[in-house]
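Design review, sub-item: ligand-bound model
Attendees: FS, YL, KQ
YL presented the inputs for the zinc ion complex:
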Amino acid sequence: MSGLNLQERSCPICKDGFIEDELLVLFRCNAYNEVRQVFVRALLERGFHTDTSNVPSQIDTVKVVCESAPKQLAKYVMYCIEKRMDALYK
Ligand SMILES: [Zn+2]
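KQ shared the predicted structure:
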Protein backbone atom coordinates (compact mmCIF):
# COMPACT_ATOMS: atom_id res chain seq x y z
CA MET A 1 0.00 0.00 0.00
CA SER A 2 1.33 3.43 -0.87
CA GLY A 3 0.56 6.84 0.56
CA LEU A 4 1.83 9.18 3.21
CA ASN A 5 3.54 8.07 6.38
CA LEU A 6 1.50 8.61 9.53
CA GLN A 7 3.57 11.62 10.66
CA GLU A 8 3.03 13.25 7.26
CA ARG A 9 -0.73 13.07 7.62
CA SER A 10 -1.18 16.22 9.67
CA CYS A 11 -4.59 17.82 9.32
CA PRO A 12 -4.66 20.04 6.21
CA ILE A 13 -7.84 21.77 7.37
CA CYS A 14 -6.90 23.34 10.73
CA LYS A 15 -3.12 23.07 10.28
CA ASP A 16 -2.77 22.63 14.05
CA GLY A 17 -0.26 19.86 13.47
CA PHE A 18 -2.43 16.97 14.62
CA ILE A 19 -2.41 13.71 12.67
CA GLU A 20 -5.64 13.71 10.69
CA ASP A 21 -7.74 10.65 11.37
CA GLU A 22 -11.43 9.98 11.84
CA LEU A 23 -11.37 10.65 15.58
CA LEU A 24 -9.57 13.97 15.15
CA VAL A 25 -12.26 15.10 12.74
CA LEU A 26 -15.12 13.95 14.95
CA PHE A 27 -13.82 15.16 18.32
CA ARG A 28 -10.91 17.55 18.18
CA CYS A 29 -10.19 19.40 14.93
CA ASN A 30 -10.94 23.09 15.42
CA ALA A 31 -12.06 23.45 11.81
CA TYR A 32 -15.23 21.50 12.62
CA ASN A 33 -16.13 23.32 15.85
CA GLU A 34 -19.13 25.03 14.31
CA VAL A 35 -20.69 21.88 12.83
CA ARG A 36 -19.76 19.98 16.00
CA GLN A 37 -21.74 22.50 18.06
CA VAL A 38 -24.77 22.03 15.81
CA PHE A 39 -24.41 18.27 16.25
CA VAL A 40 -24.11 18.48 20.04
CA ARG A 41 -27.14 20.81 20.16
CA ALA A 42 -29.13 18.29 18.09
CA LEU A 43 -28.15 15.54 20.54
CA LEU A 44 -29.17 17.67 23.52
CA GLU A 45 -32.51 18.45 21.88
CA ARG A 46 -33.11 14.72 21.56
CA GLY A 47 -32.40 14.34 25.25
CA PHE A 48 -29.12 12.56 24.60
CA HIS A 49 -26.91 13.16 27.51
CA THR A 50 -23.43 14.17 26.58
CA ASP A 51 -21.70 13.12 29.77
CA THR A 52 -19.42 10.52 28.29
CA SER A 53 -17.08 10.42 31.28
CA ASN A 54 -18.08 6.82 31.97
CA VAL A 55 -17.42 5.83 28.36
CA PRO A 56 -13.92 4.36 28.09
CA SER A 57 -12.84 5.72 24.71
CA GLN A 58 -13.77 7.97 21.81
CA ILE A 59 -14.59 4.89 19.74
CA ASP A 60 -17.05 3.81 22.44
CA THR A 61 -18.56 7.30 22.40
CA VAL A 62 -19.08 6.95 18.65
CA LYS A 63 -20.74 3.56 19.22
CA VAL A 64 -23.06 4.99 21.88
CA VAL A 65 -24.04 7.95 19.66
CA CYS A 66 -24.40 5.65 16.66
CA GLU A 67 -26.90 3.50 18.54
CA SER A 68 -28.91 6.33 20.08
CA ALA A 69 -28.73 9.05 17.41
CA PRO A 70 -27.67 7.48 14.10
CA LYS A 71 -29.35 10.12 11.92
CA GLN A 72 -27.71 13.01 13.76
CA LEU A 73 -24.33 11.28 13.61
CA ALA A 74 -24.71 10.62 9.89
CA LYS A 75 -25.64 14.25 9.31
CA TYR A 76 -22.64 15.43 11.32
CA VAL A 77 -20.26 13.16 9.39
CA MET A 78 -21.78 14.44 6.12
CA TYR A 79 -21.26 18.07 7.19
CA CYS A 80 -17.65 17.29 8.10
CA ILE A 81 -17.04 15.63 4.72
CA GLU A 82 -18.56 18.60 2.88
CA LYS A 83 -16.52 21.08 4.91
CA ARG A 84 -13.33 19.11 4.28
CA MET A 85 -14.02 18.85 0.54
CA ASP A 86 -14.76 22.59 0.36
CA ALA A 87 -11.56 23.44 2.23
CA LEU A 88 -9.37 21.16 0.14
CA TYR A 89 -10.81 21.27 -3.34
CA LYS A 90 -12.78 24.47 -3.81
ZN1 LIG B 1 -7.67 19.72 11.93
